[in-house]
Amino acid sequence: MGTEKKKAKKSARRTAWRGIIGGDILATEFFRRQVKLLVLVMVLVIFYINNRYECQQQMIRIEELKKDLTDIKYDALTRSSELMEHSRQSRIEEYIATQQSDLQSATTPPYLIRND
């Protein structure tokens, strides 16, 4: 009698697995009643996956833009220091001297005109 029960359980399990794998479980009354809920759950799962993918893509883009911004900042700093170097008074005086211009450096200090 015990072996017959074991055989019945095994055949019931096989039938259950065959029903799940074969898709027969979807034809049961429970799943027919819950079709709208299952569709809603699937839509939400797809929305969640899509949302996460978009978030990852945006984070990758943000990292790329941060790297570009850092490169641009360093380039701007380099150009700014080059401009400061070229616009120093000693450099300007050297340039004027090599161009044989009539311009000269002021010998008297500048003064402020006040309107009192």
> Globular, elongated, flat, extended or rod-shaped: what is the shape?
rod-shaped
Number of strand elements: 0
Provide the helix percentage. over 70%
For the record, give the distance between the C-alpha atoms at the N and C termini, rounded to a whole number: 123 Å
Strand content: under 5%
Unreliably modeled segments: none
Order of helices and strands: HHHH
Radius of gyration computed on alpha carbons: 41 Å
Give the biggest sheet: none
Mean pLDDT: 86
Number of helices, counting only DSSP H or I runs of 4 residues or more: 4
Pfam family, one: FtsL_2
Organism: Candidatus Bacteroides pullicola
Protein name: Cell division protein FtsL
Task: Provide an overview of this structure.
The protein contains four helices and no strands. It has helices at residues 2-22, 29-33, 35-86, 89-98. The relative contact order is 0.03. The mean pLDDT is 86.
